[in-house]
Amino acid sequence: MLQIKNLHAKVGDNEILQGVNLELKAGEMHAIMGPNGSGKSTLAQVLAGRETYNVTGEVLYEGKDLLAMSPEERAVAGVFLAFQYPVEIPGVGNLYFMRTALNAIRKQRGLDELDAIDFLDLAKEKMKLVEMDQSFMSRSVNEGFSGGEKKRNEILQMAVLEPKLAILDETDSGLDIDALRVVAHGVNALRRKDRAMLVITHYQRLLDYIVPDRVHVIANGRIVRSGGKDLAVELEKYGYVGLEQHASARSIAVP
Amino acid sequence: MTALPTDIREVASREYKYGFVTDLETDAVPRGLNEDVIRLISAKKNEPDWLLEWRLRAYCRWLTMEEPRWQNVHYEPIDYQDIIYYSAPKSKMPGPKSLDEVDPEMRGMFNKLGISLAEQERLSGVAVDAIVDSVSVATTFKKKLAEVGVIFCSFSEAVQNHPDLVRKYLGSVVPYTDNFFATLNSAVFTDGSFCFVPRGVRCPMELSTYFRINAADTGQFERTLIVAEDGAYVSYLEGCTAPIRDKNQLHAAVVELVALERSQIKYSTVQNWYPGDAEGRGGIYNFVTKRGKCAGANSKISWTQVETGSAITWKYPGVILQGDNSVGEFYSVALTANRQQADTGTKMIHIGRNTRSTILAKGISAGHGQNTYRGLVKVLKSASGARNHTQCDSLLLGSKCGAHTFPYIEVKNPTAQVEHEASTSKIGEDQLFYCRQRGIREEDAISMIVNGFCREVFKELPMEFAVEAQKLLGVSLEGSIG
Hints:
The structure holds two protein chains of two kinds. Chain A has helices at 40-48, 71-76, 94-108, 116-129, 135-138, 147-161, 177-189, 230-253; strands at 2-11, 14-24, 29-33, 54-61, 64-65, 79-82, 89-93, 140-141, 165-169, 196-201, 214-219, 222-227. Chain A is an alpha/beta fold. Chain B is built from eleven helices and 23 strands. Chain B has one domain (26-477).
């Protein structure tokens, strides 16, 4: 579904991604872990089409050149980013925002737009998934939401928009343990055979709830280790620095 | 590509869909202004002597006045001798008795504007007074309103049929000496709407005046007077458009509202005068004096305005809070795109005890637009317990536009409470990216964010007007990104 080949991203002279390679198949969930400033969030933003970066390399999404597409084209094609910092839009109702987004996508795909009543039914159904109260729907997008509410709102949007490729950028940050469980439950419920997920996280604790197929460790803009879910445990044990030493120690040990 | 206004490029073009000219035969006075022209206008309208005298006093006063220069707008000096001060569609003479007698060309024009006069009368339940250039061409629903005692007619008719009422209230809120443009208007005003709601009557429908400048080189100087007697209620809507012309046209109107005890007047405007082209050629100079007086205790006046048109807007709809416990409100959205300039706001003058005022002003600047909020809150010594809350928010789209705020606060009573809040924000790249990541096109996202920004004002508008205002903002911002 997604092939990333030698992806570089720069802001000014600062090269943040320095040749990322990654392949993600439909139905798979991969976790990307790494220390602050390693380029995790940049990877998410670049995949979603943020124009702040000067990007080179190749990204194929369902065989198409993802980098040539605008953010909205990517969204319509099924790419979804759950934001690390969901944005507030004062005066725009949450329900209205989601309906506008869904209808924009449906329209591009040649489907009928949903009216307010049909959409409300759909939204109510999806809200159960993230245990969200209906009062959120009449509030402005993310305005006055707590950190946990914002993250739940992201997962709700994912449930409503039903993407093929979901990128979750530090969806666990700022969550207490109960909120983490709710969000993780929502994410797990949205795993599908035809849907791929890229979960970006700082900590292993999210992976207690969401079990990835693969774990990648990113450092200095490059994937330095890839492995099964045990890699996350190892990482937790040694820390990022320790892991590097551990890794280099091992690579020395192995002739 | 760098951060924001990155994507929001120059306001390229914005289509003005009301820019057509209708070929109406007109009856006009010679270009220029002098005493004879004023006498001619007055004679054409068969006015009583007192009104002619009032006009002439205003004219003499005007000759001694200087055009104001303090406002934060820039334009070439206006040649007041190059304006035609009276232009009337000819078929109007001597005046249609019913809609069937209105010139078909004119009816066609209003249909094109989306205001079918006949349909308005039959279907929408909104009474409309339509004003083209200098005269009122049709007023709908007169009969039904008359049944409850509401007088709603053109100003000229009011002068003929209700001279005592006109004489009593004309100039009682905006005296002919008030300011350069109001004084000019007092000398040369040609028509406008008149509305009188008697004691205890709740006006059964929305009243609406539709202004249209059609003829070239014509100034529009209309005068609107609304009086609500004790316990009366009226909601009044005003809409305006003009053809695309490459010369600037002057619109210097005066609106006076008088609210007596326990009465309420709600005045809503959607102003869509031709704004000029992308380089700032042409467009209407909208120099308007609007003021209401809460003359009686417990009365209330609300101004709601959505200003998207005009090359230059200069207006400060205000309320004189004379009656005890009276309430003044001002809700405004002003949008400036291309080379448009707006210097607008309000004046709240607290005189009575426990008077309250609320000001909510939203300014949106795009392209090279310059948007100024200028507001005065004045609490006189007599106004014990007066309260004001002011909130001014500015939204910037792009990097070549400007937003300015000039609040003036004068408080002479120590028990008064006055609050002022202001904010300036840019449409963030973050907001836009968030919307686009959800599949919403950039233009739709801007329109959605701007509409969200204006929501608190829009909800003060009557339903249909609110929908129109939202559409108008969408159209006005079209092409504001590259």
